[in-house]
Every structure is written in structure tokens, then in C-alpha cells.
Amino acid sequence: MATLPAHDMGSAANAFRAEVRTWLAKNWTPENQAAHRRKPFKERGWDAEFSKLMGRDGWIGVGWPRKFGGQGCSVTEQLAFVTEMANSGAPVQAHSTGESIVAQALFKHGTQEQQDEWLPAIRRGERSFALGYSEPEAGSDLAALRTRAVRDGDHWVVNGQKLWSTGGDKAEYIWLAVRTDPEAKKHAGISVLIVDLHSPGVTLRPSLALYGKTFSAQFYDNVRVPATNMVGAVNDGWKVITDALAAERVMIGGTRMAGIERAFDRLTEYLKTAVVGGKALRNDPVVRDRIGALAADIEIARQFQMRNSRLIEQGKVPLHEAAVGKVFASELQERLGQAALDILGTRGLLSEDAEGAPLGEMEQLLRHSIMGMIGGGTNEIQRNVIAQRGLDLPR
Amino acid sequence: MDVRLTSEQSLLRDSAAKFVAAAGPKVARGFRGQSPGFAPARLREAGELGWLGILVPEANGGLGLGLTELALVLQQAGRGLVCEPIGLAAISAAALAQGPKLHPMLERAMSGAALIVPALQEGAHGDEPSAPRTRLARSQGSLRVTGRKMFVCAGGADGFLVSAMGPDGPVLCLVERDAPGCMLAATQTVDGRSLFTLDLADTPANLVSPHPGSRDAAETLHHLALIALSAELLGVMERAQEITFDYLRIRKQFGKLIGSFQALQHQAVNIYIRTEAVRSLVFQIAANNEPFGIDPALAIAVKAKASEDALVVTQTCIQLHGGIGFTDEHDIGLYLKRAMLLSSLFGNVAAQRRRYAAGMNLSA
Ligand SMILES: Cc1cc2nc3c(=O)[nH]c(=O)nc-3n(C[C@H](O)[C@H](O)[C@H](O)COP(=O)(O)OP(=O)(O)OC[C@H]3O[C@@H](n4cnc5c(N)ncnc54)[C@H](O)[C@@H]3O)c2cc1C
Q1: Fewer CB in a 10 Å sphere around the end CB: N or C, chain A?
Q2: Catalytic site residue A99?
Q3: Is A134 an 8 Å CB contact of chain B?
Q4: Distance (Å, rounded) from C-alpha A224 to C-alpha A145?
């Protein structure tokens, strides 16, 4: 069994992908990779120095419009890029939220001053962000958020609590959704602030997530934020948030798919030599059936991705289409995790930091896959969107 | 859908539930990454309650009970994420009690003063228990065993019941932890418990007599282990499900209790049905089989079913919790991790099914 054939994304994107590979071969060497793997599992994926290196060579913001210093790549090329990066396992989390969600919002809703202040620094890999959306009472029902911001002179004063910000313990800034009008209808009284996580009054409480990495709760106690850090108009935050999310769904999906493909390749690699009861495991018909089914599903998930990126290129916003892609890919990820556990047997249990865990992070794959079905809007919520918006079923 | 129990069985279940009340997720959390990963005093307490000798004939000082009683205790252990290896200790004590003479180790094994655990697995994919690669040979008048056992729950163990191929076929033998040539290497698992590779090099061993009705002590112990693990998995599923249903009754989003959303109700019902299926399988098999005469097909079938469903159930439980279920602080994740561990020990669902199919005569 060989690894999956590379995904044909059209000649421009294929060529672009080759360029990315050349850069990675020089800058993400086996030695870098080995050093990265020596870090504890929860530290992997985030590397401020590597982000600066990518920034130096122009690999942050490849999809940004040229006027903001980007390469103006097509959505499909961007997809090729994120997939290639994720496939390589290179650490991109230190810049990815800023490059994607924050920058997208700034293009559309930022003032000239804000664009000048934040975008070049993000592009150089010098600004890291976490996302501050969820709260104890506001998860799926994000618009119920209650963290308050009250205007005081040329500042906003923030009080409240956020939960589960991925990378919150490492990031410098947080992209914070706050309530600025408690009297208005719930979607109408929300605004977005960029908050320095080192501001007085911010308390961070990191905790371990089930998949072995950290996320952080934050407590805001009279935190003063310059009014110039509000992105978009006061009380117009819901639009800022949803615009940025729509633009980013495809890229998030690309990263997810790359993770799936990488894990799948490792699994087939393992199967090349695995022997059970004197027989090559790769010849077991049940194993072959499962591997074949997974490979077919990976192709399908890639096609969903391509469809969504074409829609964006046509100036449309894939909404239920993006939800279909997310549900399909995250559930594929879970099936892959289960297949890996079954195929690896007891060895699949060794924890990610264990010496001699055969495929490094395989066991963790299953736990990680559950995250895919919760984070970024749960699959139940995605299905509601598909049913009501896509299929036009009654609410 | 309660299993119909005699009053003695109900008492046993209740005393196990009481024991478990002092365990639970908080205690299990404290044992993660620790060595030996459980409290030896609690193991002795289980011994005092008679559970480690639950299958040992009364004449040998045990309770002389059957698989139903074993399952009742282990179901509770699963519910409470108990870390003391009660099931493995109990089936090992039972295996030591089958010979014509009283085994010198039996009393200590039953009291919990010594922990003896099975060391049967040799590979990651489940094994054919009657064909171990580990060898037993006689040299200079004594028995010596050589080979490698994997994924042994050896934390805190004083000895191992090792399956080996002897001159006349498969045998079970007792190897002491401190015996020369006996080496243990630990690896951490997702559950926070260590599993060990046991290397034996010309290590002194003593034969363990099989039950008079069975030909192969190693194979019968293996099947007993499959039932024990399945009963424990059942408890894990049950408790995870209860925690989840309680959460569906209190968590609100969009101004409603999330348990009122049909999308979640249907998932809740699906895991309930899976759990009930495992429950009826475990207790049917327990009621209709003798501990040393378990129908191999049934032992394999129940471990396959419990291993698969426990993973589906505990994963769904996390999904139904949303983000909070994904935090390490929340208990529900511990149930998933315990399910992952128990599902894979002595062969996961794929390994069981492979063995089941191999045992069926599929040719025309
Ligand atoms: C690994 C991870 C990383 C995360 N990172 C971040 C981050 O960086 N920043 C951030 O702000 N947030 C983050 N989150 C939070 C995430 O966005 C929320 O967990 C998610 O939106 C769900 O909200 P909740 O956890 O409150 O679950 P709830 O909304 O309470 O959901 C509980 C259950 O109810 C279901 N449910 C809710 N409403 C409905 C409905 N109407 N119909 C049917 N079913 C429903 C859900 O699907 C779920 O099964 C992260 C979460 C995870 C798991």
C-alpha cells in the first residue's frame, strides 16, 4: 500500500504547492522536526521563531490581497498552501489565528490606522492571537455572551469570563467578543475588541484539554482597552465575527484534511510491515476494506473542499455547503481514529509522550477527532444549519 | 431492565457500590502517572471483603461464587473507575485454586497481601491464547520460562501468571516478580496507568494446575479475563451515560435545556441501547457459564461487543457535553480513557472478531 496520491488541485495550485515544498525542504528539515518532536506534546504546533521565519520569507498572508502585502493567491492556492503546511507538521499556530480570522476582519471592518498597525506585524509573524468567543453560558448559543465592555473616555472597560481559548496561554493578544449593549436584542449588542492579554486585570487559567494540549479560561476584571482597539462599529460585532468565520471555514477545513491525510499515510506506512499471527496485516480483507473505505472518503472530503473554495472564488459565501464539508470531514476523522486504534491494537494506547509510541500521535488521533466535532460549532449545530438553510426544512 | 438478582447477589452489589463510593474519578485522577497506580491497602480491603477469592471454592477459603457475582463486583469497579486491579487479581486467584493441592500463594493472593496478575498477551493485536511463543523448559531439574509478554498490568504486582508453550502443549505458570531473569519495563498509557513489557530469560517458574474439566489453564484464564474486562467496561459505560444524561437535564443553550433537543435525545437513546445490549450479554453469559468452562465464542463475542460499544458510548458522551466534556478537569474524559484502556487489553474489537472468525468453520 502506498500513500495517498497527491490531490490534483489544478495547475496553478499544484505549482504553488511545489514551491511551498521546496521552501519546507530547506526550512523544516528532519533535524527541525526531530527537535520539535522532542518538546512535550502540549508545546508542539506553536513556535514563535518558526512563525517569524515564515514571515520573513513571505509565507504568512499568501491569500491576503496585494494591497495589504499579501500574494493575492486564489482560494484554491491557499487551500494548497494550508494543506501542505499541515501535512508537513510545521508549527503554524503562533500566527494562524491572526493571519486568518483577525486579518480577514481587519480587511473588511478595520480602519486605516488599524490595518497599518496590525497587518504588517501579523505578516511578519510577530503578533499572536487567541480567540475569545465562548463563555460558560454561551457556547453553541454564542450570541448569548455576557462579557461586558463599558465605554470610559477613550477606553473600554471589560469585565467577564471567557473559556477554552486555544493557545490562550501562549498568545499575546485575544480577539474578544464583548457585549456593549445589554438592552439590545442578543445579536445586536455585541462588539469586537483586540485585547493585550498582558493587560492589568486579565487573569489566565490554562487547563489541559482531552487531546493533550492546553486551552485557557480568562477572567477580566476592569480591564482597560484603548477604544482604538475596537474592530468594526460599536454593536456591529456579530457581523464582524460571522464574516471572518465564513471566510475562514475553508482554510480551517484544509488544515483538518491535511491532518487526516497525514494520519492516514502513517497508518498505511505501519501496515506495510505489520504482521499478526504470522500473516501480513495488510492482506487482512477487513483491514483492506477499511483502508479502502477511508481512502475513498478522503477523496470525497477533498472534493467538498474544492467545491467550497470555488464558491468563494465566485464571490459566494458557502454556508450550508461549508457545514456539509465540516460534518463529513470531522466524522471521517473519527472513523480514521477508530480504525487506527483497531489496527494498532494495544500499542495504540501508548500515550503521545510515551517512549516508543509507534506512530507518535496515533492514539491521540481519536481524542483529537472528537474535538473536530465540537470546536468551531458542534456537528449538531452544523446539521441544524444544513437542515434549515440548505434543505429549507421548517425551523 | 434490571438483571434479576438473588438477595445475596443484591447484597454483594450493594457492598461493591459502597466500596466504589470511596473511589471515583477524583481518586482515579490522583493515581494517574503514579506507581503502582492504585492503593495497596484498598486491594487488601477488597480481599477482606472476599472479592479476590470470589471464584475460589469455599473449601479453599474463597467465596465459591460464580461469574454473575464476579460481574456484579466488576461492574461497580468500572462505574467508579476503581484503579485497584480487582478483576485481574480475582481471576488469578481463581486460577491458582484449581489444583488438587492448596497452592502456597493462594492465601496471600486472596487477601490482597500479594498481587498476582495474568501475563498472557504477546502482541498488540490479541493473541491466540493457546499458542504462546513464550517457552517453558526443564533445565537442571527445574522449570524455566523464556519469552516476552506485553501490555501487562504489572504495577504493584508480586507475580505473574504466564502462558507458555511447554513440551506437551500450552501451560500456565507462576513467575515471581523478583525471580532471576525477570525484567519489567513500563510505558505510560492514555489512561495514566502504566502497562509493562515483561521479559523472561530462563526464569524459574512453577506450573499452575488447570481446572480438572479444562485442558488448558492459559486459555481458560484468557477467557475469564475477557468476561472480567467486559463487566468492567459495562460499568464504565453505565456511569458515563448517567453523568451525561444528568448534564442534559441541567445545561441550557438557546434558552432551553439541551436535553430537550431531539438531535441529542436520539443520540442519548442510541447509547442507552448499546449499553443495555452489553448488559444483557454480560449477565446472560455469566448466568449460563462456569468460570472455568466458558464457551470461547461467547467470551470473544462479549469482549468484542463491550470493547466497541464502550468507545462509541463514551465518545458520544463527550460530544453531548460539548466543550466542557473536552476539558481534562471534567470527569467524563476519564471514562473515555478508561474505556480505551480496557477495550484494548487482551485484544480489542478487531482482534476479537478476527479470532471469532478464525474459530468458525467457514469452509463448505
Ligand atoms: C478543543 C477545543 C478548542 C476550542 N477553542 C476555542 C477557542 O479558541 N475560542 C473559543 O472561543 N472557543 C473555543 N472552543 C469552544 C467551542 O467553540 C465550544 O465548545 C462550542 O461552540 C460548543 O459550545 P459548548 O461547549 O458551550 O457546548 P453547548 O453549546 O453547551 O453544547 C452541548 C451539547 O448540546 C448540543 N446543542 C446545543 N445547541 C443545540 C441545538 N440547538 N440543537 C441540537 N443540539 C444542540 C451541542 O451540539 C452539544 O452536543 C473550543 C472547544 C474545543 C473542544
Answers
A1: C
A2: no
A3: yes
A4: 19
Do residues A151 and A215 both lie within one domain?
yes
Q: Residue window 165-204, chain B: list those with CB within 8 Å of chain A.
A: 187-191, 195
Backbone CA torsion sign across B98, B104, B105, B108: positive
Q: Is A385 touching B (CB cutoff 8 A)?
A: no
pLDDT at residue B164, as a whole number: 97
CB nearest B124 (choices: A163, A347, A374):
A347
> Which domains, from first to last, does chain B contain?
7-113 (1.10.540.10), 118-208 (2.40.110.10), 217-359 (1.20.140.10)
Tell me what ipTM this predicted complex has: 0.90
Of A137-146, A206-215, B355-364, the poorest mean pLDDT is in B355-364
User: At B89, which helix (H) or strand (E)?
Assistant: helix B86-96
Q: Could you say which of A236, A269, A300 is where a domain stops?
A: A236
pLDDT in tens, B328-343: 889 999 999 999 999 9
Q: Is A13 in the pocket of ligand 1 (CB under 6 A)?
A: no
Q: How far apart are CA B341 and CA B82, in angstroms?
A: 13
Q: Which of B83, B98, B170 is nearest to B128 (CA)?
A: B170
Query: Per residue in A29-84, pLDDT tens?
Result: 999 988 988 888 888 889 999 999 999 999 999 999 999 999 988 888 888 888 88
Q: How confident is the model at residue A365 (pLDDT cuts 50, 70, 90)?
A: low
For residues A79 and A13, the answer to whether their CB atoms sit within 8 Å is: yes
Residues of B in contact with A169 (CB under 8 A): none
Q: Which residues are within 8 A (CB) of A44 and not within 5 positions of it... i.e. 6 or more apart?
A: A36, A37, A91
Partners of B188 on chain A (C-beta within 8 Å) are 350-351, 353-354
| A265 lies in the same domain as A349 | yes
Residue A356's domain comprises 246-390
A214 touching B, CB under 8 A?
no
Question: Which of B152, B266, B326 should one mutate to test binding to chain A, selecting the residue with the greatest count of A CBs within 10 A?
Answer: B326
Do A377 and A300 lie in one domain? The reply is: yes
CATH of the domain at A150: 2.40.110.10
CATH of the domain at A102: 1.10.540.10
Q: Which candidate in A77, A84, A248, A261 is catalytic?
A: A248
